[in-house]
Amino acid sequence: MSAVSALSAKFFHDEAAAFEKLESIVWPQGPVCPHCGGMGRITRVKGGRIGLRRCGDCKKQFTATVKTVFESSHVKLHLWLQAAHLLCSSKKGMSSHQIHRTLGVTYKTAWFMTHRLREAMRDGSLAPMGGAGGIVEIDETFIGNDRSIKPEGVKKGRGYAHKHKVLSLVDRETKQKRSMVVDDLSAKTLTPILRENIAKEARVMTDEAGQYGKLGKDFAEHGFVRHGQGEYGRGEVHTNTIEGAFSIFKRGMKGVYQHCGKQHLHRYLAEFDFRYNNRVALGVNDVMRADAALEGDQGQEADLPLGLTRNRQPKPNQR
Ligand SMILES: [Zn+2]
Questions:
Q1: Interval between CA 38 and ligand 1 midpoint (Å)
Q2: Degrees to nearest 5, angle at CA 242 with 165 and 203
Q3: pTM of the shown model
Q4: pLDDT digits 0-9 by tens, 41-98
Q5: Cα of 36 to ligand 1 centre, how many Å?
Q6: 148 C-alpha to center of ligand 1: Å?
Q7: Count H helices, E strands: the chain?
Q8: Which helix (H) or strand (E) holds 307?
């Protein structure tokens, strides 16, 4: 598997090299003090642990892991980098059990690492999708069993009541996907979420489900396909992009993540969104072609998920 051969890079095995790698990502212009933002008087701490620096301005010590997901962990950084790589490079993701076996850390540690990495993959961007009149596809899917729902309280009629409900949006122009766990699929629940996440000027595409019936009032245009009548799309009116993304998600959840509680589902969604968004960002439109590109061209520079370090900003000075 190409993911394994890519693990031959030195920073996956050597702690000093791992710090050099992380430093080159979080400090492209040279070390920055995470406490005061100072850059001018930073020195290595002689005899200190690997990567330890000291700021001459505020006298505090730090490493490049501060404010990244790798901060305050007893796990070696090179193992973190392996875990991050494995989680991001495998198409369907990787379970805590696989990380546990591959890295030789305890299962509990592997579980903690993968969840922390998934947390880091959550896209904090709140800009509405479909600005400038772009097309946003909206669809929902069902997964697993929501044990918080009691069988007797459930209305009959749809076979999905006991499952977790996932709402996803795909901006067809930017190729970005955004997913969330929702309690139910009523228009009352979904409409505020859609208004919050999609620009008014967007053109939205859905299937014919009733909860989407009045979206034409909230957005510039609402096109829908009649799946019930065997229709799969008319020109721009289709939901094929999001359905393709759901099929990757479902295959991944089935094969890799056997049991997933509702309290963790949002992290798995974030992981799949992250991989989807970063893969398509490679400039390859077609999901299948993108997979091939990832497997065939894993340059070492591309192996680390840069998004994991995106929140790294120096603290503003206290007034
Ligand atoms: Zn400082």
A1: 5
A2: 105
A3: 0.65
A4: 999 999 989 999 999 999 999 999 887 778 888 999 999 988 888 877 776 778 899 9
A5: 4
A6: 47
A7: 9, 8
A8: none
